[in-house]
Amino acid sequence: QVQLVDSGGGLVQAGGSLRLSCAASGRTVSSLSMAWFSQAPGKEREFVASISPSGSTTTYADSVKGRGTSSRSNAKNTVYLQMNDLQPVDTADYYCAALDAVTAHTLVVEDSGVPYWGQGTHVTVSS
Q1: Is the pLDDT of residue 102 over 90?
Q2: What whole-number distance in Å separates Cα of residue 18 and Cα of residue 38?
Q3: From residue 4, how far is each of 32, 47, 60, 83, 97 by CA, in Å?
Q4: How far is the C-alpha of 122 from the C-alpha of 32, rounded, in Å?
């Protein structure tokens, strides 16, 4: 059973940075395709970023390209999402998600069919 625990959210001023963390248990992150999704109040959940099981492949939503970096620590069995130059539009709940790896480079870009989810961490960006 895979469990994901999200953390790192909080209140930050516009232009600031946060690093979100997703600690996995029950499976190593090297055996999982992992992703971050966000859900703003009253809106549908949206893809933010994904990192492959190998860690060598990443992809980002257009809204975070150039501002977001996904990485991971095999030693800590944790993936991270570093977000810079945060803006009020980034205010949302952020969720870590994972599915069992198909290949070493498989990414997750849709939430449909993703079996494992963190509890979410809230990010508020003030103007």
Answers
A1: no
A2: 14
A3: 11, 17, 20, 20, 8
A4: 23
> For 20-64, what is each residue's pLDDT tens digit?
999 999 999 999 999 999 999 999 999 999 999 999 999 999 999
Smallest Cα–Cα separation from 21: which of 80, 86, 84? 80
Integer Cα distance of 59 and 17 in angstroms: 19
Burial zone of 118 (CB within 10 Å; 0-12 exposed, 13-18 middle, 19+ buried): buried
The predicted pLDDT at position 124 comes to 98
CA distance 19 to 28: 21
Nearest Cα residue to 49 out of 12, 19, 28: 19
- Residue tagged 């600690």 (tokens): 23
